Amino acid sequence: MQKTGVQTFDRGLEILRLLALNRRMTASKLAKEIGIHQTSASRMLQSLQKAKLVYKPDFHSFAPDIGIFALGSIAMRSFPIVDRAIDTCVKLKMETGLEMAVGTLFEEKMFYFTASETKMTFYDSDFPVHISSIGLLLAHSMGKRTALRIIRASIKHSKYPGYEANHLYDMVDESLANHGFLYLRDFFDNKINCAIKFQLERGEAGLAIFSKQNYLSVEESGKILRNTLGKLADPASIS
């Protein structure tokens, strides 16, 4: 009985994930993707529809409903890092003119808590890992084999070719050994792009500072990164 409940929950989550990725799908297509009978998929969709997590934009299809957005908005309040990151991002921009991003890797994709250039907060992104200082840094921390797989996949599916996975990995490795953080100069479309890791309650995250206009020395970049990182710390965790 318990196993059935777990399976149903997992399949319901998979339906929501597929709808989020594809925007709208039919019950038959969802059933085929998940590997279940269409009748089972239809029953799950009816339950999700009652909870306002999905709706029918037309006679055949299903799509994510506003209930998902409401759930996400409520959940965001459980992540104080978002408010701290937004506040720190605004102050850093005013004080130094530098752009800033705070994010993590989730299922090997970039997931941002805030990013000043986009004026958005708490969102997943298709921004390629291999040209993200945060992405490269966090991939590196997973070990060489995993990092190279993530970087190669990012290069393969990106419209930004011209990068080689082993070279990018070695570049991160060398910078960490020499500076204790990732320092990139004239990388992608930024004059400087630097990142440092920090620990969240549920895993690693990265803080990046970058600029299209100005260069900063390694020393200047390191000082700003570490000072900014201190402002991101949870006040409750500081004794």
Question: How would you characterize this protein structure?
Answer:
By secondary structure, the chain is α+β, with helices and mostly antiparallel strands. The protein has 9 helices and 9 strands. A 6-stranded antiparallel β-sheet has the order 6-5-4-9-8-7, with helices on both faces. Strands 1-3-2 form a 3-stranded antiparallel β-sheet. A hairpin with a 4-residue loop joins strand 5 and strand 6. Helix 1 packs across helix 3 and helix 7 crosses helix 8. The N and C termini lie far apart (47 Å). The mean pLDDT is 87.
Secondary-structure map:
Elements: H1 2-22, E1 25-26, H2 27-34, H3 38-50, E2 54-55, E3 61-64, H4 66-76, H5 80-96, E4 99-106, E5 109-115, E6 120-125, H6 133-140, H7 144-156, H8 165-179, E7 182-187, E8 190-200, E9 203-211, H9 218-232
Antiparallel strand pairs: 1-3, 2-3, 4-5, 4-9, 5-6, 7-8, 8-9
Helix pairs in contact: 1-3, 2-3, 6-7, 7-8
Question: Short description, anyone?
Answer:
It is elongated and about 60 Å long. It has 2 domains: 2-70, Winged helix-like DNA-binding domain superfamily/Winged helix DNA-binding domain (Arc Repressor Mutant, subunit A); 79-237, GAF domain (Beta-Lactamase, 2-Layer Sandwich), CATH 3.30.450.
How are the strands of the largest sheet arranged? 6-5-4-9-8-7
Coarse shape = elongated
Count of discrete alpha- or pi-helical segments spanning 4 or more residues:
9
Along the chain, the helix and strand elements come as HEHHEEHHEEEHHHEEEH
Q: Give the strand content.
A: 15-25%
SS-based class: alpha+beta
CATH topology of the largest domain: Beta-Lactamase
* Total count of strands: 9
Low-confidence stretches: none
Helix content: 40-55%
Report the biggest beta sheet as strand number plus sense, adding barrel if it closes: 6 strands, antiparallel
Question: What is the CATH homology-level superfamily of the largest domain?
Answer: GAF domain
Q: Indicate how many domains the architecture comprises.
A: 2
CATH structural class of the largest domain? Alpha Beta
CATH architecture of the largest domain: 2-Layer Sandwich
